[in-house]
Amino acid sequence: MSRFLPRAIGFAILSVLLMAVGSVIVLIVLVGAPTAGGVAAFQHEAASRAESVDLIVGTLVMLLTGWLAGRPFAGRDAIFAAGLMAVVYIVIDLAIVFLFGDPAQIAVGTTGRSYAFKIVAALIGGWLASRTPAFEPEPVPLDEE
Fold this sequence. Notes:
Blueprint: H1 5-31, H2 39-70, H3 76-100, H4 108-131
Helix pairs in contact: 1-2, 1-3, 2-3, 2-4, 3-4
């Protein structure tokens, strides 16, 4: 497991960052940029779409990062690396909520469904990585004289 953990941590952090940036971009595209007088309207509209945006962006990001995390490994190792990355992501996400948010405000059903989608997407990404041959350079012929 020690060979998988640094890679899992790195791609879990990348996942957190990509999901945050991706969600903001998608919300701005869907709702429009907040204006000086319309910040409250933007917040209301963004809050109503946040769950759907999180599921879509989160699933796509976890599929990508699961594939990247499992890429250098073969077979079950690739799937394990992607799954470990998803678990580390969940630990980081919960740590952020408990440190900076209000844990009492967590909607358990919605959060659980979101984590389930993300774990499945990461595992599919790991499975796809296990099916894709890794780049192997052509052997250099040795001149035997």
